Structure formats: C-alpha cells, structure tokens
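Justification of computing resources. Each target in the renewal requires a structure prediction run like the one illustrated here; the chain below, 425 residues long, is used simply to show the kind of job we budget for.
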Amino acid sequence: MSRPPRTALLAGGVAAALLIGYLAMWLGVSRLEVGRSDFTSTYVGATLLRQGHAAQLYDESLQTPLHSQLIAPGDRQGNLPFVNPPGAALLALPVTFLDLPTAYRVWSLLQLVLIALGVAAAVRAAPWPGHTLRATKIAAWLAGTAGAGTASTLLLGQWDGLLTLGVGMAYASWRRRRPDDGGLAAGAWLGAVAALTKPHLFLGVAAFMLARRDRRALGGAAAAVACAGALSLLLVGPQGLEAFARIALGGTDRWPLAGLLGFTGLFGSWLGNAGTAYALAAVASIAALAGCAVLGARSRTDGAKFETALAGTMALTLVMSPHLLGHDLALLAPAAAWMLAGATRHRVLALWVLLNAVAALDFGNARMAPPGRLVPVVLALAGVVALRATGGIALPAQLRRRAAAQPRLTYSGSGSGVGGAVDQS
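Resulting structure tokens:
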C-alpha cells in the first residue's frame, strides 16, 4: 500500500495543529474582547434592520448608542460602524435573536465551517494526478484551511468564510464545465458574495472575467449583482443606498493606512496617510488590475493555464484592494488548495507558508518603520510569479503581432552619419 509523501504528512500535521490552536484561542476570547471584535459592527447593523431602522442603517447617531449598550459596562471603546452593503445586515439578522456573546460564537464558528467547505470544493475539483492518494488531498485541504486569514476571521467574527466559499464554489463550477467554456454558476457565486459583503475585494476578478470574454460567467455575475442591488434598494431605499455609498467611499481615512495589507498599507507604512501614499497605491493598483486582465486573456487561450491564472488574479485583486485586512487573506485558501494539485506543489507550499508567516508579523502592526508591511510584497510577488508562469511579463500576443506588423526603419549609408538613406521594410 502506497504511503503519502512526507511533505504532505508534515504539512497536514502542522496545519491540523494550527487549526486546533486557532480554536483554543477562540475559546479563550473574553466577553470584553467579543465586544471589541469586528462582529459587533455586523450585529449592530442587523439589529437596526430588525428594529425597523432600515433607512437609517448607516446613521452613526443610531449605531453609537446601540454599540455602547452592547459592549457596556466597563468599556469605552468607540463605535465600529456598519459599512457592509444592506444585504449583509439581512444575512446576519437571524443571529441578533441571540445575545451578543452567543451570537459571536455561532457566527465565527459558521465562518470557519464555510472556509473549510470552500477549500474542500477547490480540492475536490482540482485536476489531481490519477495516482494521488486521498491523504495527500486531505493534507492540501488542511493546509489551505489553516491559513492566517482563517485565524483572523474566526477570532474577529468577520465575513470571509462566506467569501471563501464563493471563491471555492466558483472555481469548482468552472472546472465542472471546462474553464474555457466558463460557467453561469461561477459568475453567480462571485457576483453574489461580492455584492452582498465586500465588493472592493473582487475588482481584479471582474477584470479577469472581462478579459476571458466569459459571457456565461459575466452573465451570472451581472444577474447576481443586479439581484443584490434590487434587494438593497428594497431594504433601505434610495436614501439608505446613498448613505452606504457615502460611508463606503468617504471612510478611507477612518483607519491609518499603515495598518492595511494591500498597496495602501505598503505605501502608508512608508509615508503615512499622505497624498503621495494614496497616489502610489493607485498607480500600483492599476498595474495589478492590468495584470488580472492579462491573466484572464491567457487563461482564455490556454485552458492549462487556468489554475495559475486564477490564483494569480486572487493575489492581485487582494493587494490592489483599498482596504485589505488580515482576515481577507482567507480568500486565497481555495487557490492555495487547487495549486497544490499541480506539478509545482512544493513551490506553491513554500509561497503559502511565506505569505502566512509575514501575515502573522503584519497583523495589528501599524508602525511607521521600514521595511513596512510585508504582506503586499508577497501578494504582488505571487501575481508576478503567475504572470511569468503563464507566459512571462510582456505585451499580450495580439499587441506584439500588431507591433511586428508596423514598418521598420533601417539605415543604410556610409557610416559617417551624413547622407545615409532611410528605408522602410
């Protein structure tokens, strides 16, 4: 009977130990820490919706006293505003019938389960070699699930379990239909989880799908976004949507840039909340967006590049996000799992370990000191690796052919620089 490789056994064992450690830390979260977790923002928003304040969902004059009531007594921590789309408040509404500590436990444990399911979907759909043992696949599932983003999502009671499930199910849907055909369900999964919770994390994915000219996926995404938009309008009305847009677009200076993990965090950790940091982050984000489009185009013309292209896109769409935090790294867990099915699994595992190691260093670090945030450097590196693996960092083939078709200027003459002839060829 064949035995799984020692690398798989080691990775699976370490990952299992990490998951047990995460659960131990989660069980040790105090009542005070629950009140200070990100989950209170979700709980407040859903409670306001349940109490009939849908149109005032983003009114901080209503949020603040409710937040203070939830975390009191004994704490003066300020209000953490609800900034997710209206549909998120509806999704979280059932847990508001529980008291805050119990709701936090139920919610965060649910997010852990969703992350595990999203990674499992990716492992099951990935193109493993025919001789791969089940134990190796389980090790890949454990390694993907045990990322640092999972720990942050679990402890803070964040939304990223749902997002990770969407990414894993979208990949599985594409794989079932052949990547070159795309899939309505893939686009619907991505559009739904983005529109309901954190649309800013999926800008690069949109560029990827557009460049793939994947009409089915684009149609599924458009339908899901339209449904989520209609739901939001029904929930909070035009006034509520206007308030959401205002708080989403106008709250970029609420947190110090140095505490973020995308390009904004990289340049913010060098320059602070300066205009130069925003400008540099914008330029780098445009480059990352272009990289996502290139990866999408390459995956359209060569299905063998699909896994690498989509994984690179996930890294680039995160690093270009204007508001990337540690828990959002959970979205890379399915990508790590499906890439571990390929021939470069040892390099993938090394990059995954590196990302999670630097994430542990960056979590909660908002100091202004060189070398600054490290996560965006590793995410950008992952994107560059994907671009090189799918065809190099160069102009797309169509642009190269167009450039080659242009007339060339050649010089023929005496070499003196005077009187020579210039020919077009």
